[in-house]
Amino acid sequence: MGRLEGKRALVTGGGSGIGAETVERFRAEGAQVLAADLRGGDIECDVRSREAVRAAVVETVDRLGGLDTLVLNAGRPVVGTLHELSQEEWDDGVSTNLTSIYLFVQEAWEHLAAAGRSSISLTASVVGLWGSQNQAAYCMTKAGVVMLAKCLALDGAKAGIRCNCVCPGFIETPLLDDFIDAQPDPAAVRRGAVGLHPMGRLGKPLDIADGFVWLSSDEAEWVTGIALTVDGGLTAGIYRG
């Protein structure tokens, strides 16, 4: 028996990076799982659109016979100081990183409540716990994800719906690669990022996927409302090597 045997799961942002690794880990642990993504995955879904979100939930319930596990991982970086950031970037960052959670919760809630002993897991970030220069909007959205996890935990308790979030450090994903490659000296930025982590490396998608496996399993049945930091010691304190 796998740790997620019998679970019926939907993972957003499941076409690459953390989401794709989470899908693979869930399947390895016995879950039935579908990956929703704007490109790739099992279900094409623009998480900013209520119609697309509703269709993804309906398809998941139809194909899996129900839904008891959500991993809302879809997100995007938003780079720039607040006084320089365009409203288009602000609006799209909020829509992708925060409003998508609102939409999925609304569309999936009745199914989660009907299943009982359900869970919602969200991808936040270490920059949802402390600030980062030139990323005000991104930090704001990820801090919002942390608070949504806490409030959803309270709102879902009587219905048997747990909610938690994972706060990754710097993870080797296409999103991080694109961010680093856009910098004037990518090699220096990468070395600096590695050096921030006391454990001496950037994180791997598997590091975060394993956190989602635990939070979604019955091993965590008395765990709700937490922000699980998986960051190689990044937020433990100042590290000088």
Description:
It is a single chain. The protein is of the alpha/beta class and about 240 residues long. It has helices at about 15-30, 50-65, 85-115, 135-155, 175-180, 185-195, 205-215, and strands at about 10, 30-35, 45, 70, 120-125, 160-170, 225-230. It contains seven helices and seven strands; from the N terminus they run βαββαβαβαβαααβ. The protein has a seven-stranded parallel sheet, with helices on both faces. It is globular. The model has no long low-confidence stretch (mean pLDDT about 95).
- Give the CA-based shape: globular
**What's the β-strand tally?**
7
Cα Rg: 17 Å
Strand order in the largest sheet: 3-2-1-4-5-6-7
Please, how many helices? Answer: 7
Identify low-pLDDT runs: none
Largest sheet: 7 strands, parallel
Beta-strand proportion: 5-15%
Question: Span between N and C termini?
Answer: 42 Å
SSE ordering: EHEEHEHEHEHHHE
Please state the average pLDDT score. Answer: 96
Helix content: 40-55%
SSE-based structural type: alpha/beta
